[in-house]
Predict the 3D structure of the following.
Amino acid sequence: MKRALVGLIAATALVSPAVAADLPLPVEPIVAPIPVFSWTGFYAGANVGWGCCSDQDVGVFDHDDVDGDGDIFEGDIASLDDDGVFAGVQAGYNFQWNWLVTGVEADWQWSGIFDDESGTTATGPADGFRGHASSDVDWFATLRGRAGFAWQRFFLYGTGGLAAGNVEYTVRLRGVGPDIRHDEEWEWGWVAGAGAEFAFTDNLSAKAEWQFIDLGTEDASSPDGRFSTHPTIEFHTFRVGLNYRFNGLFQ
C-alpha cells in the first residue's frame, strides 16, 4: 500500500510540469494609446463683436492766413467716441511644436462702429464757433501673426500685424465754411491683441479675443482748403467666434 501511494505521488509530480507547460500564458490587455490633440492645420470661421473706446476731440484749423500768423486753431467742436457692433469671417493656419503654437490669420469685418456729435468750441480764438462731426468705420480687416501656448485643447495667444479699413469722416462748419469730408477706401495701420481658444471637438473650436486697431492720423480738408482737421482713427474690439478645423488638410 505504501509503495502504491509513493508511486502515485511520483507520477503526479512528473506529469504536473508537463501539464503546466501546455497551459496558455496570461495575456496582457491591449490598451490603445490616447491620441494627442494637435492645433496644426488650416481653419476658417466667423465672429461677432463690439467696437468702442475711440475717444477723440475734433479740432478744426483755419488756414486763412489773413494776419500772417500761420494757421489758426479754431478749437475742439465735438468729442467722438465711436462704438457699435461688427461681424465677419476669419481664416488661418496653425503649426504646433510641443506646447508652442504659431500661425497666421486674416479676417474681414462689416462694421457699424459710428459716432455723431455736435458741439460748441470754448477754447478757440473764434469763440462760439459751431460744428458737427461724425465718424463711420464701414469695414476693417487685419492680417496677423499668432503665437502662444497650448495645453491640449486650450490655446492662449497674442496676436499682431497689419490693419486696413474704410472710414468716412465729416465735419460740418455751420455758417462758417464748406464741410470737411474724408472718405478713404483703404486706411492702413497696425493691430495688436490677445485671445484664448478652446477646441470642444476635434474639428470645432470657440475663441474670445481683444484687439486694438490703429489706422493712423489723417488730414481732412474742406474743398477750398481753408479748414482742416486731423482725426486719429483707432478703436478697441472685443469678439467671440467659431472655427472649423480641417484636420488632415495641409498637415
